[in-house]
Specification:
225 residues; alpha+beta; globular
Length: 225
């Protein structure tokens, strides 16, 4: 099957009738509006985060503090987008029953060394007080977008970060349900190696080719319908 850019793209429409608050691991991609490269640069196949990129990684790691029912796996911040695997846990055993993926397989420190947490100037965190939250995937992404946008705007005023027009993030995001351990490992490797693929990445304004990973992902998503 040949690559068709009009068809083979990361899915941005939620599955009709699917409950995105039920236990499942998800691969998500969140993109900066207008493909602006605000978060750092790829240098010799390595992602070098700037202060904005470090801020994005900090708030992503806060998701487990905000939502007790969420566990984070590998993630990577790129110049104008981020890829991540996260799991909405349910009872924990739900993941084993449905996908053969248990808590021990998902609760990993998959972040890269250059994506460590750096404190914001005012010490702001997203810690949750009260009953455990069982969010939907949309709830999680919306909170993340809100917190990162608010801090980015504050840093524009205080630190002279580059401005953006309208919104920091694209309105939607791309998601894929990770259905087995084989897919989980393939996606982890894709996230890890994303800087090496940057010249072929569809989010790269100066890309020189096409990345076949989107074609593979489309084939997997066909099982979701």
């Amino acid at each position: 099957m040949s690559y068709d850019p009009t068809k083979h793209h990361r899915r941005s429409i939620r599955l009709v009738g699917y409950d995105y608050s039920q236990a499942a691991p998800y691969f998500v991609t969140i993109c900066v509006q207008e493909h602006l490269c605000l978060l750092g640069d790829v240098v010799d196949g390595e992602m070098v985060l700037n202060a904005a990129g470090l801020m994005i990684g900090k708030w992503w790691k806060e998701l487990e503090n905000k939502f007790s029912g969420v566990r984070l796996d590998r993630f990577r911040v790129m110049p104008n987008h981020m890829h991540a695997i996260l799991a909405i846990m349910g009872t924990g055993m739900d993941m084993v029953t449905k996908f053969g993926i248990g808590l021990d397989e998902l609760n990993l420190d998959g972040a890269d060394a250059n994506e460590g947490i750096v404190p914001s100037p005012d010490g702001t965190t997203g810690g949750h007080i009260g009953l455990p939250l069982q969010p939907s995937l949309g709830d999680v992404i919306q909170w993340f977008k809100t917190m990162t946008t608010n801090e980015y705007i504050r840093r524009v005023r205080e630190s002279g970060w580059p401005r953006f027009k309208g919104k920091l993030w694209q309105r939607d995001y791309f998601d894929h349900i990770v259905r087995n351990e084989e897919s989980l490992e393939l996606i982890r490797n894709y996230i890890r190696d994303n800087p090496l693929r940057w010249s072929f990445d569809r989010e790269n304004p100066s890309r020189t080719g096409d990345d076949k990973f989107d074609e593979w992902l489309l084939d997997q998503d066909g099982d979701d319908e």
